[in-house]
Amino acid sequence: MQHTGIAVVGSGSAVPPTTLTNAHLCQMVDTSEEWIGERTGIHQRHLNDGRSSLTELATKAALEAITMAKLQPMDIDLIILATSTADDMFGSASSIQFALGATRAVAFDLTAACSGFIFGLVTCAQFLQTGTYGTALLIGGDVLSRWVDWSDRRTCILFGDGAGAVVIQSHPVNHLLGFELHSDGSQNKSLSLKYGGTDHELLEGIAVSQGNYKPIDMNGQEVYRFAVRRVPEVLEKTLLRANLTVDDVDWLLLHQANQRIMVAVAERLHIPIHKVISNVARYGNTSAASIPIALDEFVREGKIKTGDVIATSGFGAGLTWGSAIFRWGT
Ligand code: ACO
């Protein structure tokens, strides 16, 4: 089997137009703009209403990434949609494939909550590095607003909706410098979006469970402690594996959950704050979309340049966490 490297060659993003500010939240739950700003760094988030779908957001982000990569949808071999909030329980990746006209591509969903983009990046890389496929489209997209209890002040302040995408291609030089992925189901209770059905008897002695999902349930302090411990640890391991030091890192790009988590991780790793990519203030936590949306923003603003080393880490429900270090561009 042929072994090659990979390069991330295009990015795109899309968010719904409606914004919900901290001032708006004060009209909905017992909170204050100061509390939300100080504890999370979030000032507003974009929310999706029924007029649009995750598939539409993801398709828009994907088209931007394909255009930046100077490719056509027909050039794509593989589409992975990292999401926990597909429009269709059977998966939304195929609908995106159809909307794009990427008829050559195989498409499937991957669920790893807020780690989804990192897990998806590594999954794409496996297909590319073995020579199975030449060009992959990875989309991280979520509309967690569908599953937030908007009367729960502990969670409703955190989340926003959006999608981000990257195009990854096989390349003679490997720009994926290292990665590490982890799961710990023993801590699943800390953060969940559980199915909650009731029994429905079909015939005597034969019942099925039917129902819906319960809103997001989170122990914020436990998730916070998990993140500030595991994220620096996984990044240190990945740097070691890649034979790099923190000085080689141009950008620290963490899942955009909370500004305090990003600052704490940067301090633990001795990475200066000007290297920390953050846009959580304007988007909140967009789950699997947060890393590619922030990446795309910094690429389009010309801040991230070809050859820059980006250390990324995702963490979230599962619990799952992981990191990938890559060079931007070819
Ligand atoms: N406004 C005002 N007060 C509030 C609010 C609010 N919105 N929410 C909670 N409080 C209160 C609490 O009731 C508590 O009051 P008490 O002391 O009288 O009981 C007090 O504020 C402190 O609550 P804590 O939960 O200890 O607050 P903390 O400083 O931990 O901040 C937060 C909470 C922001 C949720 C923080 O724990 C956090 O960011 N955790 C990580 C969450 C996260 O990143 N989750 C996403 C993971 S990614 C994924 O997979 C989806």
Note the topology:
Elements: E1 5-14, E2 19-21, H1 22-26, H2 33-40, E3 44-46, H3 54-68, E4 78-82, H4 93-100, E5 106-110, H5 116-129, E6 135-143, E7 161-171, E8 176-183, E9 191-192, E10 195-203, E11 206-213, E12 217-218, H6 220-241, E13 251-254, H7 259-269, H8 280-283, H9 290-300, E14 309-316, E15 320-327
Parallel strand pairs: 4-5, 4-6, 13-14
Antiparallel strand pairs: 1-7, 2-3, 6-7, 8-15, 9-12, 10-11, 14-15
Helix pairs in contact: 3-4, 6-7
The structure holds acetyl coenzyme *A.
* Helix-strand makeup class: alpha+beta
Give a short account of the largest sheet: 5 strands, mixed
Using only CA atoms, what is the Rg?
Answer: 19 Å
As residue ranges, the low-confidence spans are none
Task: Please explain how this structure is put together.
The protein is an alpha+beta fold and 330 residues long. It has two domains: 5-174, Peroxisomal Thiolase, Chain A, domain 1 (3-Layer(aba) Sandwich); 178-185 and 217-327, Thiolase/Chalcone synthase (Peroxisomal Thiolase, Chain A, domain 1, 3-Layer(aba) Sandwich), CATH 3.40.47.10. 30% of the residues lie in helices and 29% in strands. The chain is built from nine helices and 15 strands. Helix 6 (220-241) runs parallel beside helix 7 (259-269). The longest helix is centred in the last third of the chain and has 22 residues, at 220-241. The chain binds acetyl coenzyme *A. Acetyl coenzyme *A is lined by residues 31, 35-36, 39-40, 113-114, 153-154, 157, 191, 218, 220-221, 223-224, 257-258, 285, 287, 316-317.
